[in-house]
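Final report, Chapter 2: Outcomes

The project's central promise was a pipeline that accepts a single protein chain and returns its three-dimensional structure in a standardized token representation, suitable for archiving and comparison. That pipeline is now operational. To close this chapter, we reproduce one record exactly as it appears in the project archive, with the input sequence first and the structure output second.
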Amino acid sequence: MVVGQGWLLYTFVQLSWKGLGGRISEKIGQQQALRRLSLHDNELVGAVPTSLGFLRNLRGVYLFNNRLSGSIPAAIGNCPLLQTFGLSNNQLNGVIPPSLGDSAKLYRLNLSFNGVSGLIPLSLSQSSSLTFLLFSIIICLVLFPILGAVGMILTSSSF
């Protein structure tokens, strides 16, 4: 915990398995010192806050096993130090934002058991840091032109 200008700034928020409900406030983006947000295995609803993209020190987001909905905010790609982004087992939909590939240190991305569909962004497939990429899919089609893979088409939400 860091104190700055009359505010408590948290470096870690660890409130997993607490039975928490409700929404994650956009005010989370004011926690500039936040490095790890761990709210997994609760009953959180609503959108993943876009304001997470304001957190330049953020390294880990663990929001899996909740009831979050909506799309994955493109602003998450503004987190240069982000290493782990876990959103599995929620009710997310839409496409994977290409900006996630802008997080140069991202090595673990888990979007399994959601309703995400569409192309896996080329920026992710070409990432040199990404070593763990998990989606649950029914159909995954890899397109191979003469000189390698162009992309993957991701459809459905889970097995």
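Archive annotation: The first strand starts at residue 2 and ends at 4.
This record, like all others produced under the grant, will remain available to the consortium after the project formally closes.
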